[in-house]
């Protein structure tokens, strides 16, 4: 593999060509480093549930096992399998976003209906955690990729639900503008400090207090959100205060 630098002083065509090769090489090795880091993170995240599954399956084979323990061990195996499954799904989604060979599948649809649908999907969790949910949705037709955008709302809502204590409040707002729409998801949850805020869009990043909670995350959700928003030429902003809550705001320009 080529490494090192070419010394270029010429401004002719060959010189220009060599210069762009050099830039490409630099970019490639940066990509290479990111890819290696990514693979090592993925392996690590697969390893621990696999170890748990193996360990508890072995324990289950003990013939003298008490009924209560049997149930307990089977539950661990089930939840670790679910974890692996959601990790795989998220990874596949991220990979498909990275290597998007075909353009987005654009459709005109009502974002307000889509948001309602996503909230409906998590009604059970909202009730289980006794959260109060308020929605203010303007009617907004928008042209974008509905399948990818659904993941954005789903990840933001699920995070708000996961990182908010029992009895907290969640707010989902959708407003229309002349050339863009804005979706905000606000929660009164655990919030984040500055250090955490700077890293939440990194792949696999999870704040320490999120790791210790039994929320079952992968650290990939917000990377997916960011990627999809970027593909729609939009922006995402976060404001948060530790112990008070967070607000995620997505702005999408109207593409057509
Ligand atoms: P995860 O699967 O861990 O939720 P994400 O990529 O969706 O992964 O989020 C990365 C991290 O950002 C989370 O682990 C958590 O520490 C922090 N985070 C995301 N959303 C919120 C929120 N609404 N409130 C507090 N922390 C959040």
UniProtKB/TrEMBL annotation:
Keyword line: ATP-binding, Cell membrane, Kinase, Membrane, Nucleotide-binding, Phosphoprotein, Transferase, Transmembrane, Transmembrane helix, Two-component regulatory system, Virulence
Highest taxon above the source species: Bacteria
Main subcellular localisation: membrane
Location of the HAMP domain: 1-33
Compartments, as annotated in UniProt: Cell membrane
Histidine kinase domain sequence ranges: 41-256
Enzyme Commission code: 2.7.13.3
Function of the protein: Member of the two-component regulatory system HssS/HssR involved in intracellular heme homeostasis and tempering of staphylococcal virulence. HssS functions as a heme sensor histidine kinase which is autophosphorylated at a histidine residue and transfers its phosphate group to an aspartate residue of HssR. HssR/HssS activates the expression of hrtAB, an efflux pump, in response to extracellular heme, hemin, hemoglobin or blood.
Protein name per Swiss-Prot or TrEMBL: Heme sensor protein HssS
Species of origin: Sporosarcina soli
Lineage, opening ranks: Bacteria, Bacillati, Bacillota, Bacilli, Bacillales
């Amino acid at each position: 593999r080529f490494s090192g630098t070419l010394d270029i002083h010429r401004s002719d065509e060959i010189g220009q060509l060599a210069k762009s090769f050099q830039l490409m090489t630099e970019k490639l090795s940066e990509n290479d480093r990111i890819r290696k880091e990514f693979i090592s993170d993925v392996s690590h995240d697969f390893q621990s549930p696999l170890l748990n599954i193996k360990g508890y399956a072995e324990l289950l084979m003990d013939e003298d096992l008490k009924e209560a323990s049997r149930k307990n061990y089977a539950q661990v195996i089930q939840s670790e399998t679910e974890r692996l499954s959601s990790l795989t799904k998220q990874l596949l989604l991220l990979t498909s976003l990275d290597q998007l060979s075909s353009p987005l599948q654009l459709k005109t649809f009502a974002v307000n209906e889509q948001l309602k649908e996503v909230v409906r999907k998590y009604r059970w969790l909202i009730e289980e955690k006794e959260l109060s949910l308020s929605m203010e949705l303007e009617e907004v037709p928008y042209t974008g990729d509905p399948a990818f955008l659904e993941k954005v709302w789903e990840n933001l809502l699920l995070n708000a639900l996961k990182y908010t204590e029992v009895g907290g409040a969640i707010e989902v707002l959708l407003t229309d503008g002349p050339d863009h729409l804005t979706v905000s998801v606000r929660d009164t949850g655990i919030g984040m400090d500055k250090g955490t805020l700077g890293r939440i869009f990194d792949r696999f990043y999870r704040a320490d207090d999120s790791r210790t909670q039994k929320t079952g995350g992968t650290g990939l959700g917000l990377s997916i959100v960011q990627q999809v928003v970027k593909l729609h030429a939009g922006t995402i902003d976060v404001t948060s205060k530790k112990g008070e809550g967070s607000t995620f705001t997505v702005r999408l320009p109207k593409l057509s």
